[in-house]
Amino acid sequence: MKQVVQDLDSGAVEVVEVAAPCPPAAGVLVSTRYSLISAGTERAMLAFGRQSLVGKARARPDLARQVLASARAEGLAATYHRARGRLAAPRPLGYSSAGIVLESAGGVPARAGELVACAGAGYANHAEIVSIPPHLCARVPEGVQAQDAAYATLGAIALHGLRTAHVGLGEIVAVIGLGLVGQLAMDLAAAAGAIAIGFDPNPARVAIAASAGHRTSTDRTDLLAEVGRVSGGRGADAVIVAAASRDPAPLQAAVEIARERATVCVIGDVPITVGRAGLYAKELTLVVSRSYGPGRYDRRYEEQGVDYPIAYVRWTEGRNLEEVLRLMGAERLRPSRLTTHVLDLDRAGEAYALLGGAEPALGVLLRYPERDRAGARVIAIPDRALPDRSERSQRRAGGRAAVRVGILGAGDFARGVLLPELTRLAPLTVVGAATGASARAAAERFGAQTSTTDPARVLEGEDVDAVVIATRHDSHAEYAVRALKAGKHVLVEKPLALDEDQLASIERAARDAPGVLMVGFNRRHAPLAIALKHALAGAGSLVVSYRVNAGTVPGSHWVLDPAVGGGRIIGEACHFLDFAAFLCDAPPTSATAVATADGSQLSADNVIAAVALADGSALSLVYASRGDAGLAKERIEVLGRRGAAVLEDFRELRLYRDGRERTTRQRRDKGHAAELAAFLEAAATGRQPWPVSEMAAVTRATFALRAQVGAGDA
Question: 2-151+304-367 architecture in CATH?
Fold first, then answer.
């Protein structure tokens, strides 16, 4: 199928052939008929993508600081690979579309053959086939055309803004900025019985609003006069700021025309730098409307289909979408009046050029060919991509047949850390990812012949000897078991499993499989870790103190979801338990923990754990999300009969023996490259790198810790 993406490196808009998405476990698979280009949001995205690296750094100084910190710690080469990995990921464009359902699952009230409106960045993309979760789609009423339904998402944004401003019957609503959302806000306000007055300095946009019977103005003074005339000098009851501007003038105008104790609602992208005096003098309420409504950015609502109770949240983003479509069906909203251009999908580049061109353009629709099936989920990549890497990998194999590798997962970590090193060492044959665009981009960049959205193509492919699994945590166990049963060698990123049932299934599969199994516990392969172990070898049991300044993770991040990421103890602390097991050549045998208390809840990512190991060694783990970024992330102290050691963030190792200190310093190296080399060596020889029972013991110890500290704030 074809999809529109932006190359973040060059900023170019491209139509690419990609693998079709997976049918959803709950939701709909949709053949798109029309998708709407959002002139405001997508123009801003394009402008960012077209900036130079310096321009991007200026636009996102927070990311620039992260890059500089990484360069100081890990060196320019490693930082370059990570940064290039992020920029090499294509950005899917689009978030408002309409199409015909091909498949429906999970109780979604839309059947195959029905027309639905689709919403959401990352879901309702400019693509021939899209996979949409239950609450981001809505059935289109009879009589509503797909060209109109494609506007439903932007209509929901406008509707939520009006709800946030508490617009009621007979109230006067001023709308500043008459782009698509502003125009739809005018229509919806009128449909609700309010009096809408619009302002935009662009005469063409004002003319479009006026043609629908709205009061409009291109002059700020005229706007103030018209609001005063209609309101009897009181001012607007509500002001919707739907403009996109770097100038605070739209918000300043809103304060000027609002009546006392009115509400000013910001929908558009404007700086909120209005002075206090104007707000105070009128006692105004200033609010920012967030996208389509309650549920937006909530993974449980959007991805997992967990609805909000209607008695407590009457209007969610999904119900706003339905209401916009109902108004279309009742002929009280006709968004196609805003359409200025309709272009076929193959002309997407021309369509985006209209956004910054001299020709007036407002509603730009992409039109799609009719399809009655999703199409191929496996795409062959032309031979032009990195043709020499396989040759180098073959020579490095030292006469042995090179281990052919397939990878599942093409996220930031895979692109920035795993794949650059992996493709130096072995031929990459296939890349699998959740989205066709990500899979294709990674395959092209790293020289794979095939990209796919079908996990089976990687796990069971005849051209794959070894599988690297770098997907979300909840899929690790299933994919590892399937690959082992297919006779593949498996490197699965941590964690190995999220619960006992998953872990037991892996143990059974590994016991019966011919391939090796390895978990991505990279720290045991770090050069300074190996030096530390050798220095204290033969010292008997050890006392290991491991302090981790982990930093915070946003509460909405998937890693904190117990069902998807498992939480940070299972998802990350497993690294540190394995490190102790590696140093002592002994698995954990028991683990206890206490967590900090936040009110009545335990904070599961601020933990002190005590872990006993089979050789009598003991680990004290301090894992904290609290702290400061200026403090090194990891510090390890090891005390033994033959000496002691301190390892500072895998950059400095201090060894103490007989009262003397010896120090080794290097760029931070946490062992990722050596880990991949060890995996490929194990796959080539068929020798298990370390016992699966030890990997399982580390994983079970994290289960014990999680049980004691609970799921925490997640």
Answer: Alpha-Beta Complex (3.90)
